[in-house]
Amino acid sequence: MDQPSLQNTHVKLLGFDILSLTPSFSNSSIFYLKGNPTSRTEILGVITSREQKPDKFLKLTIDDCTASITCILWLNQHSSHYFSKRQPTTVRVISDLAKRLAADVQIGKVARVRGRITCYRGEFQVTVSDVVIERDPNAETLHWLDCLYLARRCFGG
Q1: Measuring CA to CA, which residue among 123, 97, 103, 105 is closest to residue 45?
Q2: 101-104 — which CB contacts under 8 Å span 24+ positions?
Q3: Residue 62: beta bridge partners?
Q4: How far apart are the C-alpha atoms of 73 and 99, rounded to whole Å?
């Protein structure tokens, strides 16, 4: 039976999995994990750093004890050419959501981050689409178990 494509799915990964990704030569938004293409991830860990440039971005680091991964939440929706062709009301909603997500991010909290895997200046990072602050004390353990299950089941690891 063929493996389903994980390319547009937020794949649960550990930090060291992200650091072991291989970039695609033909498409800069695709990365390979043990031969399986992926472009999006879900990671979970402790927020160990937070740097915000108002109306530009929030840069945070997530540490899951296997690696520290840089994550970027863009806050420049009103000035970005990427959003210039969208309806102003849509841009406002996206901007308000990003600001609310940024306000929740605090050093020492456990966060679940979903987003696109990108490479910036030779380093892997996650361009954030969603951040959830975890309140369940078992969230990290469950995420690790899910990652181990997926590694065995989907990635042959």
Answers
A1: 105
A2: 101/73, 101/128, 101/130, 101/131, 102/52, 102/58, 102/73, 102/75, 104/131, 104/133
A3: 47, 69
A4: 9
Q: Extract the tokens encoding 150.
A: 């997926």
Q: Which amino acid is at 94?
A: I
* pLDDT tens digit at each of 157 positions of the chain: 345 566 678 999 999 999 999 998 888 889 998 888 899 999 999 999 999 998 889 999 999 999 999 999 988 877 776 766 777 787 788 788 888 888 899 999 999 999 999 999 989 999 999 999 999 999 999 999 999 998 888 776 5
Distance between CA atoms of residues 127 and 120, nearest Å: 10
The first and second tokens of residue 144, run together, are: 């690790």
Contact present, 79 and 61 (Cβ < 8 Å): no
